[in-house]
Amino acid sequence: MLRRIVRGFNGYAVQNSLYLYSLVLFAVIILFFSVTPMIAGGINSGLKAHISGYFIFSFTALLFFRAKGINRVFLKAALFAGMYGFIIEIIQLLLPYRLFEFLDIVINFAAAFAGVVPGYFLVKNKWI
């Protein structure tokens, strides 16, 4: 029954472009928190923010790319999210109140690749 509900939502989301809207929303949220000064001791910075942000972003990219019928969707979704993180780090290099850190790029790519792992199992078990 749960599988039928998930498939029904997936069809609804594809039909109404919800995956595209979600992808754009997450991209804007990540960009906003990446270019603003640190909030409350750095809640918009650090390991937890990078991992959760890029994990969700790559999973959303996976759903969108899969809905569009793009091949090699897992690799492309992870690379898309990781490259977005790389571009954000380049933007932070230009801002006086933010820092460019190579380790952040590595964390972004690692979280992006980890974000497509649940999607792999959902696709393998034909949930999406």
Describe it.
- This protein is mostly helical and about 130 residues long.
- It has one domain.
- About 75% of the residues lie in helices and about 0% in strands.
- The protein contains five helices and no strands.
- Helix 2 packs antiparallel against helix 3 and helix 4 runs antiparallel to helix 5.
- The longest helix has 23 residues.
- It is elongated and about 50 Å long.
Task: Write a brief caption for the model.
With 128 residues, the chain is mostly helical. Helices cover 77% and strands 0% of the residues.
Percent helix among the residues?
over 70%
Cα Rg: 16 Å
How much β-strand is present in the residues?
under 5%
Task: Report the strand count.
Answer: 0
Largest sheet: none
What is the number of domains? 1
Structural class label: mainly alpha
**Envelope shape:** elongated
Continuous helix count: 5
Q: What average pLDDT do the residues reach?
A: 83
Parts with pLDDT < 50 across at least 5 consecutive residues: none
The separation of the N and C termini measures 14 Å
Order of helices and strands: HHHHH
List keywords for this structure.
mainly alpha, 0% strand
Write the layout of secondary structure elements.
Elements: H1 2-15, H2 18-35, H3 47-67, H4 73-94, H5 102-124
Helix pairs in contact: 2-3, 2-4, 3-4, 3-5, 4-5
